[in-house]
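User: Just a sanity check before I run the rest of the batch. Below are the structure tokens for the first item. I only need the designed sequence back.
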């Protein structure tokens, strides 16, 4: 299992982000405050429908925006599943699985299985997905990502 694509709209510090990922390890590299942990948090949110940093969803929405969207494409045994999560403060969140609305956002739980390690003092976090791939490492420099910021 691996995440092939992560897309964000108005999630935390990211007005827009679109990352194509490959099987194996992924390392996010960038200066402090650039949004590395926000990317990990978005992946964790897609896996659990919750944040490892805050109790409510409101702080996940970028300041000035009405909603945030986290989109992932997860590959498991060669099968792709697309999960789109719309986070709205003060309203029920919406979810789509393979572009079709689901009755409850909880129906997407289990599409992305993840383990999060987050030290208490410093939040250097990463996600390990169960995978059957070659285990090669991917390095993405965040300053090179396209953004509308």
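Assistant: Here's the designed sequence for the first item:
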């Amino acid at each position: 299992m691996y995440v092939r694509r992560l897309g964000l709209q108005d999630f935390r510090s990211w007005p827009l982000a679109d990352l194509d990922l490959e099987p194996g390890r992924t390392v996010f590299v960038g200066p402090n405050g650039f949004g590395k942990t926000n990317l990990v948090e978005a992946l964790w949110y897609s896996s659990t429908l919750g944040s490892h940093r805050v109790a409510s969803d409101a702080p996940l929405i970028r300041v000035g925006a009405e909603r945030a969207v986290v989109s992932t494409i997860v590959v498991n045994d060669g099968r792709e599943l697309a999960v789109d999560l719309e986070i709205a403060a003060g309203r029920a969140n919406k979810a789509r699985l393979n572009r079709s609305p689901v009755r409850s956002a909880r129906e997407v739980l289990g599409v992305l299985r993840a383990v999060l390690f987050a030290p208490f003092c410093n939040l250097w976090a990463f996600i390990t997905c169960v995978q059957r791939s070659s285990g090669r490492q991917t390095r993405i420099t965040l300053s090179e990502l396209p953004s509308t910021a």
